[in-house]
Amino acid sequence: MVARGLPRNVPKAVARYQDRPNRGQRCGRCMHFIEPGGCEIVTGRISPQGWCRYFEAMA
Ligand code: SF4
User: Fold this and answer.
1) Which of 7, 17, 30, 55 would disulfide-bridge 12, Cβ 3.0–4.6 Å?
2) How many Å is the Cα radius of gyration of the chain?
3) Which residues form the High potential iron-sulfur proteins family profile domain (predicted)?
4) Protein residues whose CB sits closer than 6 Å to any atom of ligand 1
5) Tens digit of pLDDT for each residue in 3-51?
6) Domains and CATH numbers, the chain
């Protein structure tokens, strides 16, 4: 992930984080989600039902 130059410590507002899914995309299915409530990109508590602009589907 670091090799790809992923951003880190991004505030929720900058990431346009929301606490609900976006068209079927949600944190619980994103490769950046860290169980049970974190994210390797966005700071703060992250809901598995949330979403942000950095969403990338799990492989
Ligand atoms: S959708 Fe955004 S906040 Fe949610 S896990 Fe992925 S990168 Fe983190």
Assistant:
1) 17
2) 10
3) 1-59
4) 15, 17, 27, 30, 32-33, 39, 41-42, 46, 50-52, 54-55
5) 568 999 999 999 999 999 999 999 999 999 999 999 999 999 999 999 9
6) 1-59 (4.10.490.10)
